[in-house]
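FAQ
Q: What does a multi-component entry look like?
A: The components come first, one per line:
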Amino acid sequence: MGLDVLFKIAGVGILISVFHTALKQAGKEDMAHLCTLAGFAVVLLWVVQLLGKLFTTVQDVFKLF
Amino acid sequence: MWLKLVGSLFIIIAGSLLGFNVAARYAERPRQIRQLITCLASLKAYISYAAIPLPEALIACTGGAKGVISDFFLKTAAILTKCGWLTPQEAMEQALQVPGLVLEKAEVELLAVLGANLGAVDRIEQEKYLNMIHEQLQQLEIEAAQLSARNSKMYRYLGICGSLTIVILLV
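Then the predicted structure of the entire assembly, as tokens:
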């Protein structure tokens, strides 16, 4: 799978934290939370795909069906 | 590889420019309101003490300064000179199309009130209106400065970070 997904997730995390701080300083707490939630959703999308791959690999290794 | 790099660079430059443009707009507004206050104070003096015709007073009140607000006053004066049948309010409404003007609804409404009263009432009443508009513009300037202090930094960050996020998501 490579390390690129990990780096991508780390990059998105850093940028989302900057977003959150900037929006919070501007007094837009609700937008800051929304932004964090959006970042979380994007990262979750990637992680879910990876988890799906992991499950298929486990199924293949143990020949579950 | 190179195509991706160049594309990413373009996205980052475009996003950053967008953020900086919006931030500059926020920073420009208090400055324009300040210029407007200066010009209106000068206009008040020209109406009260010099009693010269309105188009000439509008030209004189800019004091030969360069900038969007003085462009606005000069254009109003030009419209009033060219189309004598227009009221000052209509001339000001037309002059609001000057490029680079970042005044918002509150200031535009104040200018409409000013235009409705310029030359329509006597000198003392005009002075009263100008004083009232001066006070309201000062209040708006304080609010715009606060808004600018809060928002311009945020938009700069959002521009750069947003473009970086797009690049990460697309790569």
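Q: Is there any commentary attached?
A: Sometimes. For this entry: Chain B has a mean pLDDT of 86.
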